[in-house]
Specification:
The protein is mainly beta. It has two domains: 3-127, Trefoil (Tail fiber receptor-binding protein); 151-424, 7 Propeller (Methylamine Dehydrogenase, Chain H), CATH 2.130.10. The chain is 3% helix and 44% strand. The chain has one helix and 40 strands. A hairpin with a 4-residue loop joins strand 23 (251-256) and strand 24 (261-264). It is elongated and about 70 Å long. The two termini are 31 Å apart.
């Protein structure tokens, strides 16, 4: 048997036709695949109904598809074996290969020539010939919304920790310890840049009002029109570290050590404000749902309607620090020390939730593709469709802590210790479903 080319549907009378129509229009990198026999000694096969884009054409498998060459693959615990699909006009077949592919940005997938690679596995008796992958069933685009597959992207910070990533003005910007800054057009290929903080850590970066703003240790602030060329600015935190930054209501709001808060309309001219955390450090601040929410040391939470006047709120983390907060699906989600989670519909009234990180710190949380993703100590990653019920997932950082997770336009980026980046969701141009 062989797969066949999917033509553009003649009508959109059914939900499936709608989906296929959209897939054909998206085209680049689309893949919705399932692999059988992952839990026995039989050779793996591609299940009926699987579909994918290859070189700009969409193919489907109408019946169970055998993958040729399984018997010829040697049992070797160190050998990665790939499954690739080979197009031939209006048909397509599947085969095993030990030749490694390369990422093709234009095609949105892993390729060797015109052959697209879709699975990776090992054939070894120790595993009873089972497939060893991050996930047994690999769903992408509309099907892959649960962040089960993460891939390492090559960063340029060496072994220095990355603290924050953001996207603005068509470019990703990452910042971290020792004042390092890097940029990327796609979240995969990164270029080191010259920052303006010297060797002082840069803790956060945001984009607003046509300008990137970075903040960090020793109260330093810098700006850039393009993420590449940076200029140091005069902040108002003295030598106290600035840990968090957001942009909302045409205003940058910075928060940091000793409970300090400052605002700026342009990222250049700053005004000190009175926060409501006392002298306790504020780690992060967000603007969402028409309110600013700040979180920090000793589990403290505060809110502001304008970034200027702040009110302390009652959190539910006890005296354990809260490291990050995000908003999605009509809910704020806060994460922090000792694996604690909490949610709030308004940033004011909070409810404790049960996470799956054990006692490991949860350092970052982000919402996108209709799910929350949280990450933290020991490289742990978890997901939730509602911010309440969480499920552990396999990340790509091994046991290295993840400091930040960020979502933009179909792509998740996790970053942290040892300068590591990992990505999820880049097989499609963007998730439009």
């Amino acid at each position: 048997m062989a797969g066949s080319l999917i033509p553009m549907p003649a009508n959109e009378a059914s939900e499936w036709s709608d989906f296929v129509t959209q897939a054909v229009r998206q085209r680049r990198g689309f893949m919705a695949l399932s692999l059988s026999n992952y839990d026995n000694d039989d050779e793996p096969q591609i299940e009926a109904g699987s579909a994918l884009d290859v070189n700009g054409s969409l193919y489907k498998f109408d019946s169970l598809e055998s993958v040729t060459g399984w018997a010829a693959i040697a049992e070797d615990p160190d050998q990665v074996v790939y499954i690739k699909v080979v197009p031939a006009g209006a048909s397509i077949t599947a085969a095993f290969s030990i030749v490694a592919p390369a990422w093709d940005m234009a095609k949105g997938g892993w390729y060797d020539g015109n052959d697209r690679y879709i699975f990776a596995l090992k054939k070894w008796r120790q595993y009873n010939n089972k497939i060893t992958m991050d996930r047994l069933r690999m769903y992408q685009n509309a099907f892959q919304r649960d962040c089960g597959i993460w891939s390492i992207a090559k960063g340029v910070h060496g072994t220095d920790m990355i603290l924050r990533t953001f996207f603005g003005n068509g470019i990703y910007v990452a910042v971290g310890i020792l004042g390092k800054v890097s940029t990327s057009p796609d979240g995969i290929t990164w270029t080191i840049r010259t920052g303006a903080h010297g060797t002082d850590n840069i803790a956060d970066v945001r984009y607003g009002n046509g300008l990137f703003v970075a903040v960090g240790d020793a109260g330093k602030v810098s700006t850039s029109p393009d993420g590449i060329n940076w200029t140091i600015r005069s902040g108002v935190h003295g030598t106290d570290d600035i840990g968090g930054l957001t942009f909302g209501k045409s205003l940058f709001v910075a928060v940091g050590d000793a409970g300090k808060v400052s605002t700026s309309p342009d990222g250049i001219n700053w005004t000190a404000r009175t926060g409501d955390h006392g002298t306790d450090n504020i780690y992060k601040v967000i603007y969402a749902n028409n309110i600013f929410v700040a979180v920090g040391q000793l589990g403290k939470v505060s809110t502001s309607p304008d970034g200027i006047t702040w009110t302390a709120r009652t959190g539910v983390h006890g005296t354990d620090s809260i490291y990050d907060v995000d908003y999605g699906n009509d809910l704020f989600v806060a994460v922090g020390n000792i694996g604690k989670f909490s949610t709030s519909p308004d940033g004011i009234n909070w409810t404790a939730r049960t996470g799956v990180h054990g006692t490991d710190a949860v350092n970052g949380v982000s919402y996108g593709k209709k799910i929350f993703v949280a990450a933290g100590g020991a490289g742990k990653v978890s997901i939730s469709p509602d911010g309440i019920t969480w499920t552990a997932r396999s990340g790509a950082h091994a046991t290295d802590a993840i400091q930040d997770v960020f979502y933009n336009d179909g792509l998740y980026i996790a970053a942290g210790y040892n300068g590591k980046f990992s990505i999820h969701g880049y097989m499609v141009e963007k998730d439009k479903l």
